[in-house]
Every structure is written in structure tokens, then in C-alpha cells.
Amino acid sequence: MQERIRKLHHNRIFALVFWLVVVFAAIVTLPNVNTIIQYDGQPQLANTSQPVKATQIRNHWGRNLDGTYTVNAVFNNPNGKLTNKQQAAINKTTSALQKKASYYGIQKITTLTNTPTSKPQLLSKDRSTEIVQLSVSHNQGPVRSIAKQLNSQITTAGLDTYVTSPEIISDAANEHISSFTLMVILMTLLIALVAMGILFASIIAPIITFLAILISYITTLSLATNLAYHWNFAYSEYTPIFLLLGISLFTLLTSFWFFRELRNRIDDGDDSQAATSQVIHDLGYRILISTLTLTLAFGSLMLFNFSTIRAYGLLGVGFAITGIASVTLIPVFAGMLGTSLFWPKKTRPVLKDRKLWYHLTRFGLWQPWIAALVVLYLAGAAAFGGHQSLNYNNAQDIPNNQAVQGARVLSAHFGQGKSTPVTLYLQNNQRLDNQDQLYQLDNLTKKLRAQPGVAAVTSVTQPGGQPITQYYVANQLDGLNTSLSGTIAQLSALQTDLKSDQSNLKQKTLKAEVKRLDSLSAKTSKLISESDNLQSTIIAAQSRSNAGGNPSKKARRYVQRLNAVNNQLTSALTTLSTLSTNISGTSSDAGTAYSNLSSYQETIKSVNASLKKSQKQVKTLNKSLTQMYTYLGGLQTSEAAKSLYLTPTQLASGDFQQSLVNFTDDKVKTTTLTITLKREPNAQTTAKTLAALKQVAQSQLRGTSLKDAMLTFSGQPVVAATIQQQYQHDLIRVLLLVFGITLILLVLFSRSLLQTGYWFLTFLASAAASYQLTRVLLRWATGNDQFNWQVPLLAFVPLTVLAVVELTQLAISYRLNQAALLDWLLPGISEVGQTMRHSLFIIIAGVLGLLAASSQVLTAVALITVLTAVIFNLALPLMASSFGKLSVVIPNQKPYHFHFRRGSRGKRTRSRRSTHDTSASDDESSQDK
């Protein structure tokens, strides 16, 4: 039994069983990768970020809109304006959709019909495109399935219809990445298989390499997806691709080292198991160094908060698994198969002596300054020749998609920022449905709309993006001035009537005068009612203006005088009515008639006195009212008249209540302002515009009744700006950390800081040059040279593998060398160059699978990697030899002495030189002796 176990251990069967168990468990527990990409692929923003805070507000929005997102159903007539027939068809489609609202999870539908105040935001200026906004619940199902269902439901004959929103476009980007991920994986594995077959002219060796890549990849991918699925660990939409890219390249390189050394030993007559053990012993240190460097470099990325960068930290685990598989899994098959591993090639391939690195190294040693300056000039010109900002919009990489096309239609007919609005949430501790709060919100709306880069702003007071005229003092003053003009005319007529009544008051006309005064009394009552409204409006307008207190006092005097006139007229009317009644009974009794006539005479005098006093009051009142009319006319043209003032009637109107429903929550303590930018999100202006808007909003509310309100911005531009801020903040630190760890480990392994620093700087210059050259090539091929923000991170993986693998080999060669630096440079670099061409071939072949995807992101990554590998392998021997020689020659150069031959100083110099020459001659004489 012990002998059998020893034999199994000798043949490494236990290692094979271990890996079989591991890969079986990985396959069984592997979640659906496409689902993980869909739900967890987007960057996870911090809980303190603006978009996350806005999402929390939206999830508790109330009015049956909690946990919803807005979808735009777009109806477009490509031939011009929407006809009446097409408009009727849109209304019919909307009505049918309304009936199925619960089935599709639609909580609210906003149309031109039910929200006419939002017409400028729902109908384009050219009247060719109409929007129907749908509030859809997140719990209804996947975004892509809802989009497909809604798109089929809104199809209308004669119109182009689209269903679009930032959420749908983001999901479409993830779907596009998922669609080519499997193809990229298969093509990369296939190319890796072919590359190993070409290198070794074998069939079995590539298959073993393929199995090693597959087992390492599936194990790492299963671990990454399970961490994301069960523990919400960081995950990127490109996680399956960059894991495959790093693992396949590293496995190909380590397998190449192993198989090449194994072939040499087997051909020398060694036993397969003994040869395998010896190869592991010889290459173990080199593989360990490379594995440790890559594991520490990429594992350090788990320290970052930005989720997309933290997701790359899983590569550290992947490289550790790959390194272990290289020294445990591949030797299992190598020991068992022996020479059969290289079937059908029976003889060792004859390796030709490659002279490229030899000649480049010789030139660097011959003319070190020229070699260094030429490389630095070419690489520097390419690296720093142009700097373009990155693109943070994933929609540009999506092919023909109805949501993207719908967004382009909105941009064409409404403005570039229409499909990606910015929402400002304002939370207050008091209700927002009173005049004071609404006045501040309206001022904030106008202030934001006046900012550069802003096309429109909609709010509770401006639901259509434009001020509603009847809500402003200027419009109200216009109506008041009209009423006031009529009131002045009525008072003039009243003044004339009172004068006539005073002079023509007789018994025979008494009844007619009573009727006349009754009419005058009704007029004054109407004037009093109008004056009350006038006084309230004038006081409200004055409180928002910079005028003094005189107009308010005039208004009060006017009302007081008008009340006095009314009292006088009421008294006269009462007296005349009594008089008329008394006169009716004069025919019954003569004595009574005398008494009544005496009373009549006194009453007539009293009425005349009262009417005279009333005439005087009306005259004064008419003068005051004329002054007030002049004041209101000036106030109407002032800045104060541009202020919002909602009367209680307007606050209770149906239109304004609908606006409250659309723009506030159920407690009316949170409101939204929708900001449409002039341009779609871009790295150059969006972040600056959003920062300016936030500053303006805070400044506008400072010192007002909304000074304590909390402001939160959301929307796709805000998400892009947040990603840009975090990414730009972390990218430099990522480069410094990873490259710093790599450089430190290389220095430790080579035991030379100076030489390793030269090599590493050569790599950085090559990578920067290839980055800019790729821009030039893409601009020439596609017309677009702006990289997606994921490109530097994805290219970071193969470039780091390239640097570690090639520089590790050079560092080990330098460390094991016992000769002086100048003696090592030519033979040492030339010897390393004999295998560099194979590494170059593997690196290029390993990234060609990325070209199988119709993705500008992966195409750019492939080009950057290929160009870097080529430039680096041409520049490294030149820079290593030239800087290596200069580092020895320059310190050994004697300092240059300046000689002065004029005057006394020249004599002293010659005297010193003579003394020095004499002593030098004496030294030489003593040495000869």
C-alpha cells in the first residue's frame, strides 16, 4: 500500500486529483456570468455619492412612484411635423398602454393630454417628435425585457418609435459586452492553442497548455462571480475578459519556459519524471518571482474604494492560482507523457542564433548617447505628442440599438442633453406649497437656467421649462391697472352724479333719486371689494421691491376714503328711503302732512349736507386713485414685477395641483428640478458644469427660508462625473502602486536599483508611446480617437505581464552574472534576446482574440499591447546597453580643469602645473626604480 501511494505521489497523481476536484467544484458553483454582468457589472458608487443618495430619495418618493425609473416612449415622424392623424394614433396607443399599465409595472404616464403645462418638454419645437414619459417599477423585471415589451406595445403605423432611458442604455452596454465575452474567450483559447502548436510543432503540448489555462481560468472566474453574487464583492463588466487575458498570457509564457527546458533535458537522455523534477527546480525560482510580483501588484488593488479598480484585485488571486498550476498541474502530464508530449515532432528543433538584440546592444555600447537620445526622442514625441481625455459614456461602443437610436432622436430634436437629464432633489423640513417657499424655488429655477451649459430647467413653478405668466406680479398688475382705470372712470361719474343729486333733490324726483343713490351705493360696494384685492396685491408686490413705504400708505388712505364715501352714501340712502315712506302717507292727514313736510325740510338739508361731504370725499379719493394708478404702472415695468406671486386661488387651481403631484413627494417636503444640459455628457465640461450648478444652487438658497434644505444631484451625467472623479483620483495611484511594487521586487531580485530603473523607464516610455500611436491609428480608421475610460485598466493587465516576464528574465541574468557590468552587457542582453522573440510572439498571439469582438475598447487594448511589445523589444537592448555603459563611464571620467594663461593668475597656474608635473615625474621615476 505504501509502495502504491509512493508511486502515485511520484507520478503526481494527487496533484491531478486535487485540480480535478477544484475545477469540478468551480464549474458546479459557477453562477450565470451574463446575469452577474447585467446586475453587478456597473461601477458601485459610494453610499455618500450624489447618485446613491438620490436613489434612496427616489425609492421613498411616495405618490406610488417609489422604486421607479423614468422611461421615454419616443414617437417620431421622420418626414416632418406630426399630422392630426398621427397625433390621434399616438393618443390611441397611449390609451391602450394605460389599460395595461399594471401588467407592465407602469405607475404613471405623462402625456400632452394630461399634463398640458409640460408641452415644451414633451413636444419638440419642430413638432416632429413627441415624448410619453412612463414611470416603471424596478420590481417589474429585468430592464431589457421591459424595454422589449414596451417597444412592441408602442409601435405605431407611420411613426418611428423607441423606448429609451439611461438605465436601458446602460443595460444595453452590458448586454453588448456579454454578447462578445464568450466569443473572445473561445478565440483567445483557440489562438493560444495554435501559438503553442507553432512554437513546439506539437499537438499534445498545446492541449496540456489549454487545459492549464482552462482550469486556472474557470477556478478564478468562479471565485470572482461567487464573491460578487453572494458577498457583493466588486465586479466589472470586463472581469471575465481581463481574467482570461492575464491568466492565458502568464500560462502561455510559463508553459513555454517549461516545455522548452523539458525538451532539452529529455533529448539529452533524462528520464521524464527526473527531467520534470529538474525543470521545476530550475524554473521554480523564475516562476516564483513572476508569480509573486504579479500577485502582489494586482492584489494591492483590493485596497482601493473604487469598485472597478478593486475588481482587478482578483487578478492577484488568478495569478497565484496560475503560478501554482504551472508547477503542479503541467508537470503531471509532462512526467507521464515524456517524449510523447512533443508528438509528432521527434527531433529537437534547431534554434537559430538571432542577431537583432546583439546588433542593437552593440550599437548602444558603441554610441550610447546617440542611442539613448534617439530612443528618448522617438518615444517621447509619441508619448507626449497629444493628450486626449477619456470618454465615460459606454453607449458609443454599442452597435445599432433601439434605445441608443431613440436617445439620438431626442438629441437631434430636443437638444443633446435631452436623453440624459440631471435631476436636482431638494429636501426641506417644511412644506413647499406656500408662497414664500415657491418664490424661492422659482428664483432657483431661473438662476440655474441662466448658467452656461444649461438648456432648460423644469420645476414645480415652471413645469414646462418656461415661466407661467399668470403666476407673476407683472401679469397681475396688468389686470389691476385695467380694473383701476375702470374704477377711476366710475368715481368720476359718481362725483358728477353726487353733484347733480345735491342740486336737484326734490320731492317729485325723490323716488328716482333713491333708486339712483341705491345704484351709487352698489358701485361703491364694488369699489370697496376691488380696493381690498388691490391693497393685498400692492402690499405683496411692495414687499418684494426696493420701493419706500409711501405707496402702501396711499393704498390704505384710498381704502379708508372709499369706505367713508360708502358710509355717507348709505346714510343718505337710508334717510331718503325713510323720507319717501313718510311722504306716501301725507294725503291722510293735513296736520300730519305739515309735520312731515317740516321733517322733510330738515331731512333735505341733512341729505344735501351729506351729499356735499360725499362729493368732497370722492373728489379726494379720485385724486389718490389716479396717483396709485401712476405708481402701479411704474411698478409693472420694474424688476419687482418679475417675481412670482401665487394667489390662494391659483394655489388651489387644478394645473398647479397637478404640478405639485409631478414635482413633489406625498408630504410636499421634497421637490425635483430637472436640468437639461446643452451637450451630452463629456469629460471636458460635464463635471465642471455640475460643480458650478451645485455651487450656484447653494449660494442662491443661502439666507433664504430654504437655507437648510438638502440638495442632491442625480442622473447619468452625475454618474459619469462621479466615476470620472473617482477614476482620475485613483488611476495615478494605481499606476504608482502596481509599477512601484513591480519595480521594488525587480530591484530586490536583480540587486541593482540603477539598471532596473533604466529598464523600467524604457518600458514606461514604450507603453506611453504605444498609447498615443493607438490613438492615431484609431482616428485614421474610425475617426474617433477618444478612448473609453476602461481602456487604460484593461491594457494595464497584458502590459504588466509583459514587463514582469521580460524584465524578470533580464534581472535574473544580471544577478547570476559574476562579471563586471560592461563585460556582461553584450553577451547577457544578447542571450536574453534569444528567447524574447518567443515572448513577443506569445504576447501578440495572446491578445489577438480581443479583435474577435466588435468593440472599440478591446480593439484599442489589443493595439496598445502589440505596439508596446514591439517598441519595448526594440528599445530595451538599446537603452539597457547605452545607459548601462554611461552609468559606468560617466562616474569614472576625470573632472575637467580650466586653464588661464593671462596675467598673474596665468603665471600662478603655470607655476602650479610645473610643480604638479615635477612631482608626477618624480613619482614615475620612483615607480621605475
From TrEMBL:
Q: Where in the cell is it found?
A: Cell membrane
Transmembrane parts of this sequence: 12-30, 180-200, 207-229, 241-259, 287-306, 312-343, 363-384, 731-749, 756-773, 793-814, 835-854, 860-880
SUPFAM superfamilies for this protein: Multidrug efflux transporter AcrB transmembrane domain (SSF82866)
- Membrane topology (UniProt): Multi-pass membrane protein
List the residue ranges forming a coiled coil, or say none.
597-624
What family classification does the UniProt entry report for this protein? Belongs to the resistance-nodulation-cell division (RND) (TC 2.A.6) family. MmpL subfamily.
Compositionally biased tracts (Acidic residues)? 920-929
Q: Which UniProt keywords apply?
A: Cell membrane, Coiled coil, Membrane, Transmembrane, Transmembrane helix
Q: Where is this region: Disordered?
A: 901-929
Q: What range(s) does the Membrane transport protein MMPL domain occupy? A: 67-368
Bias (Basic residues) occurs at 901-913
Q: Name one Pfam family in it.
A: MMPL
Q: Which InterPro entries match?
A: MMPL_dom, Mycobact_MmpL
The species is Levilactobacillus spicheri
Q: What is the protein name for this chain? A: Membrane transport protein MMPL domain-containing protein
Please indicate which superkingdom the organism of origin belongs to. Answer: Bacteria
